[in-house]
Amino acid sequence: MTETTKVHLLRHGEVHNPTKVLYGRLAGYHLSELGQAMAQRVADAVADRDVVLLASSPLERARETAAPIAAALGLEVRLDDRLLEALNVFEGLTFGVGDGSLRHPRHWRNLRNPFRPSWGEPYREIAVRMLAAMDDARRASAGHEALLVSHQLPIWTVRGAIEGRRLWHDPRRRECALASLTTVTYEGDTVVSVAYTEPAGDLLPRAGKPFSAGA
Predict the structure, then answer these.
(1) What is the DSSP annotation of 105-146?
(2) Which of 32, 75, 173, 207 is the most buried (most CB within 10 A)?
(3) Which CDD domains does its entry note (predicted)?
(4) pLDDT band at 108 (very low <50, low <70, confident <90, very high)
(5) Total domain count, the chain
(6) pLDDT tens digits for range 152-175
(7) What is the rounded CA–CA span in Å between residue 39 and residue 62?
(8) Between 87 and 135, whose confidence is greater?
(9) Domain-embedded: residue 211
C-alpha cells in the first residue's frame, strides 16, 4: 500500500506596508497586527493536524507567520530559500499606472514580455524550485503532513504547474489569499488532489479597506 502524505503551502499573513510599495524580497517588512492574528488563526486550525515538518521562506513576514504554528505543533522552523518570494525589478517601488512606477517610460521595457515574465524571475524557475522544496518535504514527512510557508506568486505558480495550467496569468485571478492554505495530497509520490482553504477568511481585508502591496 502507498502512503498518503499532505504538503500544505501557506501564504503569510498581512504585512505592515503603509507606503504601499512592492516589497518583494526586501528586508524589514513585518506582519501587521491583523497579519499576526491571521497567523494565530492558522495555528489554531492546524494544531491537531499530523504535521511533522514545518519550513518557511527566510523573509520576516513568512517566519513571523510560522512562529505561532511552530509553538502550536511543537516543531522547529526550517528555513528554505526555495520558498522565497519571486525576484522582481520593481521591488521598493509603488506599482501603478497613474501613481506608480509604470508612469515612467524607463520602466516600460521591463513589461515587454508578460509570459516569461520580463520584470522578474521566470515562472518556470519559480515552479522548479517550489516543486523541489515540496518533494523534499513530502519525502521527509512520508505518511504524515508538512507545512511550508511561502508567498502568493510562488504558491500560485507551483499550483499551476501541478494542475497542468499555463504559468503566465492575470494576478487578479490568483486563488491565494493572505494566510490561505493550498494543500497537495500525494499517494506515494503521485499527486492525487489539490485543495484550497482560508482558515483566516473572516479576517481578510475586503473592498474599501486598505490595500497591502506585495505577496
Answers:
(1) GGGGGGGS-TTTTTTBS-HHHHHHHHHHHHHHHHHHTTTSEE
(2) 32
(3) HP_PGM_like (cd07067)
(4) very low
(5) 1
(6) 999 999 999 999 998 877 778 889
(7) 10
(8) 135
(9) no
